[in-house]
Amino acid sequence: MSTTRRSLLRGGAGLAGGALLASGAAAQSFPFTPNQRYPDPAVQILDPSFARYRIYSSTLEQVATGMRWAEGPAYFPEGGYLLCSDIPNNRIMKFDEKDGRFTVFRENANYSNGNARDRQGRLLTCEHSVTRRVTRTEKDGSITVLADSFEGKRLNAPNDIVVRSDDTIWFTDPLFGINGEWEGSRARPEQPTTNVYRIGTDGKLSAVITDLVNPNGLAFSPDESKLYVVEWKGTPNRSIWRYDVQADGRVANKTKFIDAADQGALDGFKVDRDGNLWCGWGSNGALEAEPREVGGRRVYALRGKPEELDGVMVFNPEGKAIGFIRLPERCANLAFGGPKNNRLYMTASHSLYALHVEAHGAV
Residue limits of the SMP-30/Gluconolactonase/LRE-like region domain (predicted)? Predict the structure, then answer.
C-alpha cells in the first residue's frame, strides 16, 4: 500500500503528541479525533465507585496507529517507552513518550504476542508462533530462551505473561499462534492440553493449570495471593477464573470470577493497586441465529453491537462492572505506564490509545 504525504497527514491528524504511523507491511491507519468536551464521554461510569478513577480533565488519546493487530503492551519506566506487538506484521513496536515517535523495535519477532518487563528491567516475550517459546532480551540485546518445551514436547503458542515479585514468570499457552496463517504459521499442537505455566527462579518449568481451554490473559491481585486467568473457550461465555496462590507456587480453589455475557469478549487485562481489573473488551464474534436483510442480501450479523462493546471494562475486586472506556477499535490488551504509573495504554486493533486515570498499576 503506497502512502503519500497527504494521506499520512490525514491519517495522523488526530494523533496526540506528534506520534508517527507505523510504517511497512501494509500498515492500516485509523484516523481519530480526541473529544473536545470534559469530562470525556468515552469514560462511562457504571457504578458511582468508579468516579474516583476518572480524571475530569483527561481525554482519550490515540498516540499511534498503523498496525494490523496490536497486542502485548509493556511499559519500561527507565526509558519512558512502551513496547507492543503487531502480530500479523511479525514485529514489536516502540512508542517513546518523550518525543511521541512510534518506530519498529524488532523485526522478525516470531509473531510475538505478550510482553512484560521483569524485575531487572529486561524484556520478556511470548513468541507465539514458529519458535513457540518464551524469551528474555538481555541488556546487551542478546536473547535468552527461558522455555520452549514441556515434558519433551514443544509448547503450543505462548500468549500472555506476568512476573511475580519472587521473580517467577507465569505465562499462558493456548493454540492461537498455530491455528492458522494470520498470526503465525499453522502447526500441529504437541501438548495434550492448553496450560498455564510457571518458570521458577531455578529455571524449572511447571504446569500449574491444565484444565482451561485456551487460557489467555493473566494477572495477580495486588498482594499476589490471587491469580486471575482468562479462559477463551470452554464455558458458555469467555470467563475469568480466580485461584488462590500457595506458598509453593501451586494454585488451588478455582472459582468463576467473571462471566463475559452480553456478547463481550475478554482478552488481556491488568490489575490496579486497589484490586480492580481493567479488561480488554469487544465482540466475541458470535452470530445471530437468523439472517437479516442487508443491502438486498440475507446476512448473519454479529450479535450485539461491536461498536458499543469495543473498549475496556473495569471490574472491582468483587467482580462487579464499575466502569467502561469506549474505544473506536476492539481492545486486546492494556498496561499502566507513564512517569506516575497512571497512564493507561490500550492496544486496540490498529492503534495504541492512552488515557490518564486516577489509578495506578499494581505491579
Answer: 69-349
